[in-house]
Specification:
Keywords: Membrane, Transmembrane, Transmembrane helix. InterPro entries: PDZ_sf, Peptidase_S1_PA, Peptidase_S55, SpoIVB. This is Stage IV sporulation protein B. By secondary structure, the protein is of the alpha+beta class. It has three domains: about 1-115, Immunoglobulin-like; about 115-125 and about 230-435, Beta Barrel (Thrombin, subunit H); about 140-220, Roll (Pdz3 Domain). It has six helices and 34 strands. The protein has helices at about 1-30, 150-155, 175-185, 375-385, 420-430, 430-440; strands spanning about 35-40, 45, 50-55, 65, 70, 75-80, 85, 90-100, 105-115, 115-120, 125-140, 140-145, 150, 165, 170, 190-195, 205-210, 210, 220, 220-235, 245, 260-270, 270-275, 285-290, 295-300, 300-305, 305-310, 325, 335-345, 350-360, 370-375, 395, 400-410, 410-420. The strands form seven sheets. Strands 10, 11, 14, 15, 16, 17, 20, 21, 22, 25, 26, 27 and 28 form a 13-stranded antiparallel β-sheet that branches. It has a six-stranded antiparallel β-barrel with strand order 29-30-31-34-33-32. The chain is globular, with a radius of gyration of 27 Å.
């Protein structure tokens, strides 16, 4: 009898633990706490759980689950089959999942977004980015005429990653301007008060006195940088408003690999003059030329984990797309054939075949949502696979923009990562513009 009670008690404990852990199990198996779908499009969640649950919603709207409208009345569904979601109106819908119609399992928020249409990019672009402030990239020292080392910046608390904004209330224009100001105040024997933005975003003030080095110049013991330039690829643009996204990854300072805060920047037309092929363990690159202030396409407003964004002043024509195409939601992207668009010679966009090998389950903005493989013999012959400068090349599948190339696998240049297009669209300002227009109409 005691053993029987013990078994019953143990089973009860296991059931309670299972119920408590069920939300985490459901996340692991594919039932997230939030997901995004596109207005009017059907999307499916593959969960693969061998039991039935009931689902209900307190929201009155157009959301359908497995083809049936969801309301306050419970709808029974089988989680061993894909969960089909569809809505004809934008908005936010709360779905409540229950086991046996009684035990709450999970609440899932379904965000129904407006359909966004853009023109896929592929254009070679020159990126000219000036930082907001002058970034400290390395600490050093100053050797005076007696051979003694001094650490004025370090002693004042100036660190690698700090952005120097002002010197004695004078805005620093660039690294050469900074050097001039330091030398000027040093000659006059004046202290410098720096206005500094730390990596955390906090603004602080630091005081120091420049030191005269053995060559007669006044220094403070740091190396700095004030921006970055390079060649990349346009990912998409809106032909009406000019919003664009490019690269699919952040621009970082070369020495520290830290984010460059945007002061000002431009994207300009670039000309690809050559290709260095990828080899095992050594990614190749596009050799491109561009000139500051020439062939300006637009500005740079934002630089973050998902690429660079701004507005175009010139809308380029595309040889493959004379009108905009829909952007796919993450749930619509599938493994299988796709195409990319990029420039290998001059400024001419070409189309190449790839395969999407894996689509990661991402329900919130994140990097590396796709694993892709280059299959086009022409591209493999010319480049050996994915090369530097190809970042941002748009990925199109079944007539929709699904993502952009971002990284190459160092040990296998035919394969690499991509970012899901929806995450880039969220950064571009297009969703806000669409919602404003919808509310006005």
């Amino acid at each position: 009898m005691k053993n029987y009670k013990r078994i019953i008690g143990l089973n009860c404990v296991l059931i309670v633990i299972l119920i408590l852990l069920m939300p985490q199990i459901l996340i692991f198996l594919g039932l997230p706490n939030t997901c995004q779908i596109i207005e009017g499009n059907k999307a499916s969640l593959k969960i693969h759980l061998p039991f039935n649950v009931s689902v209900e919603s307190n929201n009155q709207g157009s959301l359908k689950v497995n083809g049936k409208n969801v309301s306050s009345q419970e709808l029974n569904i089988n989680l061993s089959k894909p969960l089909a979601l569809q809505a004809s109106n934008t908005g936010k819908y709360d779905l409540n999942f229950k086991l046996f119609g009684l035990i709450p399992l999970r609440k899932m928020v379904v965000n129904v977004l407006p359909e966004i249409k853009v023109i896929p990019g592929g254009q070679a672009i020159g990126v000219i980015l000036k930082s907001d402030g002058i970034m400290v990239v390395r600490s050093s020292y100053v050797v005076d005429s007696n051979g003694e080392k001094h650490f004025p910046a370090k002693d004042a608390g100036i660190e690698v990653g700090d952005s120097l904004l002002r010197v004695n209330d004078i805005r620093i224009k660039n690294k050469y301007h900074l050097a001039k100001l330091i030398n000027q105040y040093g000659k006059n024997g004046e202290k410098i008060r720096f206005k500094i933005r730390k990596q955390s975003g906090k603004v602080v003030f630091k005081d120091l006195l420049p030191i005269r080095n053995e060559d007669g110049h006044y220094m403070i013991g740091i190396y700095v940088d004030d921006g970055a330039t390079g060649v990349g690829t346009m990912s998409f643009y809106d032909p009406n408003q000019g919003y664009y996204g490019a690269l699919g990854h952040m621009i970082t300072e070369a020495n520290t690999q830290l984010k460059i805060d945007v002061g000002e920047g431009e994207v300009v037309r670039a000309n690809i003059s050559g290709i260095n092929q990828s080899q095992k363990g050594l990614p190749g690159e596009k050799l491109g030329t561009f000139f500051n202030g020439q062939g300006v396409l637009g500005n740079i407003i934002r630089n973050n984990d998902f690429g660079i964004y701004g507005k175009l002043s010139i809308i380029p024509k595309h040889p493959y797309f004379n009108k905009a195409i829909p952007v796919s939601s993450p749930l619509e992207v599938t493994e299988g054939p796709a195409e990319i668009y990029t420039v290998l010679h001059g400024g001419s966009i070409e189309r190449f075949k790839i395969v999407i090998e894996k689509v990661k389950r991402q329900y919130q903005p994140a990097e590396k949502g796709l694993i892709i493989r280059i299959t086009d013999p022409n591209l493999l012959t010319q480049t050996g696979g994915i090369i530097q400068g190809m970042s941002g090349s748009p990925i199109v599948q079944k007539g929709k923009l699904v993502g952009a190339i971002t990284h190459v696998f160092v040990n296998d240049s035919t394969r690499g990562y991509g970012i899901l297009a929806q995450w880039m669209i969220k950064q571009s300002g297009l969703l806000e513009e669409k919602n404003i227009k919808k509310s006005i109409s």
